[in-house]
Amino acid sequence: MYKILVIEDSETIRLELGELLSRYGYTVEAPCSFNNIIEYVNSGNPDLILLDINLPFFDGYYICREIRKKSQVPIIIVTSRDSEADELMSMNLGADDFITKPYNTQILLARIFSVLRRTYDHVKDADVITCRGLQLNLANGSIMFEEKTLELTKNELKVLAYLIKNKGNIVTREELMEYLWSADYFADDNSLSVNITRLRKKLNEIGIGEMIETRRGLGYILE
Amino acid sequence: MSKMGYLKEKLLFLIINSIAAFALSSFLYFMGVQSYFILYTLCVWFFPVLYLLIYDYIRRSQYYNHLLGSLYDLDKKYLLSEIINKPDFVDGKVLHEIITATNRDMHEHIKEYSKKEREYREYIEAWVHEIKTPIASGKLIIENNKNEVTKKIEEEFNKVEEHVEQVLYYARSSNTSEDYIIKKFCLMDSVKNVVRKNSKSFIYRKIKLNLGDLHYHIYNDAKWVEFIINQVVANAIKYAKEEEAQVSLYAERNQENITLIIEDNGVGISKTDLNKIFNKGFTGENGRIFGKSTGMGLYICHKLAEKLGLGMNAVSDKGAGTKISIIFPVGNFSTMD
Predict the structure, then answer these.
(1) Helix (H) or strand (E) holding B253
(2) Which of A105, A127, B30, B328 has a CA-to-CA distance to A156 between 20 and 30 Å?
């Protein structure tokens, strides 16, 4: 489990972001006092820092620079300042990524995931997700079931990964499409159906059978 | 300063001189002074008078013509007092003092206004950044408590966000703001960001998206360009048809520019409205029918585009769709890579 440090002065955001991130399997720490923030960062050993720019005592730029003097921990700057100048400044100070508020949560999660993957090689382990004996390898886009493997296309992979992450819940077509769009696959109704059909065929081939169920008028579910 | 004008002004002086000279010479004549002596007296009288007049004319005309010339040449006329010399004749000095004093006052005035304008813009920008935090927390709360009600609230939040963004860019589009940064970026990335931003509308309203070849590199401010594209795409969605709606984005490489084209098959714009769509506050026929139009979006886009050196134009067929082009000029600098 990765530990994410949220440095943010709005209490609501600290709470809600904490809830969201822990739902996605991260440990979250969010200090509410900022006068010793640099010592806090150095002693806390987080795996990733989400850093706001407008803070009391020191601004985020200062904190970013100070952290970089001692540590290479990945930093994602989250700010409402959205100009090119702010983005350049953040990158020059050694931040790994830059996201503007208000953010789309799917995009925020995707950015966190990709920064973590870039930084820690062993995240590769987390690239394999399993469900009912089916192994889905996100790194090379293959599925494995009882020694049999099969390659998936990039888009089929995205669909299956989202369904597995939400297993036990009904996923509406719209929700699935929203996720796909946030991952740069701008699927329309038809291409989603095509992908689901192909995915089912491949799952059948590999021998796991009817894994994706259709709930008429509602969406898909993976039990 | 014309010679005739100058003479006219000195007419009284000349008449008085002539009358006095006439009176003197008549007096001398009746006194029995010889005529060549009278002539000599008149010469002695008029030579300095004429000399002075000519000297005075040259001096003044030189000064005033120079002044007028500078005035015509100046781009910003109120800077006149900065470049003129102080004359050495008395009414010129008075004029010089007046010009300098009024200009100084004008400068103070302009300074005050630009300061006020800057302060106002800075406040608006700060406010926009402030308001984004509660919007962000609101959206997070919605994300953590998904249901039918919060879904509707989220839609409203998105509208708020859109309006706030518009305010920010309106402040940025004012003439005194120069805070853009030109750098190289790919048109595809900007378009993708815009599409992602509007993904919900595309998905729920079942609007088909077609992305053409957009792998062109452009030198400009990516954020501002994204705002412009976003406004146009948002309009395409707003005025989309109920059935089989489509929005296409593609780019064309021309000799002197790269043109991004955003084409929809929506309601279109009538001929009478078409050349007014970039005007401030213009809502037109569609604005009246569909409501929710402030007439600011395209106006701000156009202003931003002007500042960034981009062209924008619109072609539309009522009922068949609209095609907006954003033209990125390609100079020698942009093709260096």
Answers:
(1) strand B246-253
(2) A105
More confident site: A67 or B174: A67
Q: Round to whole Å and give the CA distance between B70 and A12.
A: 62
* Whether pLDDT at A134 is above 60: yes
ipTM exceeds 0.85 = no
Name the A residues in 151-190 with CB < 8 Å from any B CB: 174, 177-178, 181-182, 184, 186, 188-189
pLDDT one-digit tens code per residue, B201-218: 898 888 999 999 899 999
- pLDDT value at residue B264: 92
Contact B242, B281 (CB under 8 A): no
- pLDDT score recorded for residue A55: 85
Are B284 and B277 spatial neighbours (Cβ–Cβ below 8 Å)?
A: yes
Quote the pLDDT of residue A106: 82
Distances (CA, A) of B122 to B174, B180, B225, B228: 12, 15, 21, 21
What is the tens place of the pLDDT at every residue in A8-35?
988 999 999 999 999 888 999 998 888 8
Helix (H) or strand (E) holding B136: helix B90-144
- Omega before A31 within 30 of 0, i.e. cis: no
Consecutive H or E run containing B223: helix B222-238
For β-strands A148-151 and A142-145, DSSP reports them as antiparallel
Joined tokens for residue B17? 């001189």
The DSSP symbol for A121 reads G
Q: What angle do CA B223, B224, B226 make, to 5 degrees?
A: 65
Across B56-75, b (16+ Cβ under 10 Å) vs e yields eeeebeebeeebeeeeeeee
Q: Which residue of B has its CA nearest to A188?
A: B208
- From the number of C-beta atoms within 10 Å of its C-beta (0-12, 13-18, 19+), residue B186 rates as middle
Of the candidates B312, B317, B316, the residue with the CA atom closest to the CA atom of residue B297:
B312
Please list, in sequence order, all residues whose beta carbon lies within 8 angstroms of the beta carbon of residue B129, skipping any fewer than 6 positions away.
Answer: A54, A80, A81
Question: A167-175: which pairs have CB atoms within 8 A and are 24 or more residues apart?
Answer: A167/A131, A167/A222, A167/A223, A168/A221, A168/A222, A168/A223, A169/A221, A170/A215, A170/A218, A170/A219, A170/A220, A170/A221, A171/A219, A171/A220, A171/A221, A172/A218, A172/A219, A173/A219, A173/A220, A174/B203, A174/B204, A175/A219
> How far does A185 lie from chain B, in Å, by closest CA?
10
Q: Is the pLDDT of residue B1 over 80?
A: no
The dihedrals phi and psi of B175, each to the nearest 5 degrees, come to: -65, -30
Report, at the CATH architecture level, how domain B184-335 is classified. Answer: 2-Layer Sandwich (3.30)
- The domains found in chain A, sorted by start residue, are 3-119 (3.40.50.2300), 126-222 (1.10.10.10)
Q: Which segments within B144-206 are labelled E, that is strand?
A: 183-186
Q: Token pair of B186, please? A: 């790919």
User: Is B137 in Cβ contact with A186 (below 8 Å)?
Assistant: no
How crowded is the C-beta side of A109, counted as CA atoms within 13 Å?
19
Contacts of B208 in chain A (CB under 8 A): 188
Place of tokens 């929710």: B292
